[in-house]
Structure formats: structure tokens, C-alpha cells
Design a protein that fits this description.
Order of helices and strands: HEHEHEEHEHHHEEHEEHEEH
CATH architecture of the largest domain: Orthogonal Bundle
Number of strands: 11
Shape: globular
Structural class: alpha+beta
CATH class of the largest domain: Mainly Alpha
Helix content: 25-40%
Mean pLDDT: 92
Number of domains: 3
Radius of gyration: 20 Å
Number of helices: 10
Strand content: 25-35%
Largest sheet: 5 strands, antiparallel
Amino acid sequence: MSANAVKKRMNRLVENNTIHSYAVYLSHTMANLRSYMAIIETEGTHHEKAMVEQIVKNHHVFSVGLVSDSACIVFAQYDRSIKPQVFDEFLSEIDGVKDLEIHTERTFDGVRVEFSPLQLRVLSHLVEDARMPVRTIAKKTNLTPRRIRRILKQLIECGALMFVARCNLNVGAGITYYAQINWNSDKADSNQVTKWLDKEFPGKYYDSHFSASAPMMLSVFVLEHLRDAEVLSQQICLNPVIESVRTLIPFPARKNVRLQTVMLEELLKTYQR
């Protein structure tokens, strides 16, 4: 696919609001962060929404949402110097939590670099608008477009940043569905399972969150009908390397700003001083 075709497709996704925004974060190594995902078994009472509100008050948590089966999924980030038990203890003390499993999430760690003043000047505008045109950045920074392109190339390739498109998978008739998949690590690795999902469920399989400590993945699918979720889970179970699949239908999640974003903004404030 040509660069122009990719650009047109991305523009269509923006126009129909599938991609609702773009963002730039510090890599985990640059921010010295570790990411976690937790699957909470709740008591299944009407106090679950209050539990979510209590969890989201923790600034380390960047997403928390109820799912079907009286469960809740939480994503959080902590400084690497903080022991994982701190997150475990925080969730265990929340009213309504009956049981929980916490996984360190496998992430793109990246590298640590020292940004130059010119790179920080350009980066400050990308934080404002990650799709800001080269000519606009050039005008704001009093640099030539050619120099801006060179700096952008450096920022993209340095490994210290993550450039992401934020998607709304529920646009139109699509329904988001999580499958908590456990597989036999003696028979396959995560790459093999992912390739199989890509091949078997084209147009349905979207992405996965991988545990760094166990053969478990929380996979995201987009389906046309809610009734398709259980059927798809049964199809996944037919693969002999899969040990179990749990169907989880998510409800709207509560969000906080990622610490990777907060720390990047703090870095830029220090530069601007």
C-alpha cells in the first residue's frame, strides 16, 4: 500500500471518528514506569460504580471499567522503584473487590535519550497537536520545513517516544469484546498465538494486552453483534494450544491522563523555564 493510500485511509478513519485523536507519550524507559493490568472479581452488587469512582481517583490508574461477568478491568502505571505489591494492596482495600489477579503488562520499553533544545521545541508543539503539519511547526518555531522534517525523523526513530492513534472502536454498529486468553506456553509463544488470531479472525481481531509474567493475553475484538462473542470464544478454544477463554463485554471506562503524558509535559515545562 502506498503512503498516499495509507494517508487517505487514515483520514477516513478520522472523519468517521474511529480515530478520535493522536498523542505522543514518553516511552516506559524514559518515564521510568512499569504498566500493570488487573482483572477484578467484584461482589456483584449495585456498589460497583462507586468502586470504579474510588479506583479512578488514584492518579496511577489511567483506565478502569466494568465488564460482564461481575468483573472490572484496571490499567495502571507506577514508577519502577515502587514494588508491585503497592498496586495489589491499593486494589485489595477497595470496597466491593472479592478477588483479583494482577499482571505486569508487556510493553514497548524504548530507550533513554537526552533531547536537544531544538527537539524539545518541536516536541512541545507535537504535544499540543500530534498531527500538526510540518509547515505549521516551522512557522511556530522559526525553523525551515526541511529542518523540521529532520527533527521529526529523529524523534520518531530515537525510541524514547510513542506516537499513538486513539481509537473509538464502538463507532457505528461495532461492539467491543475482550477475550481473556490463556495458552500453553510449551506449545506456542505469544507471537504465534497473535498470528493465528490475525489469520483466523481478520477484521475482528484488533489488539492484545500481554502479561509479562504468565501466558495470558487480554485480546480486543470488534464484532457486529453481541451474540457473536460467545461463538468467537468457542472458536478460539478449538486451537489446541489454547487452555481457556473468558468472554468479557466492556462497559464505558473511566480514564485518567497517562503518567507518560504527565511526565512529558513536566519535561517540557522544565525546558521552557
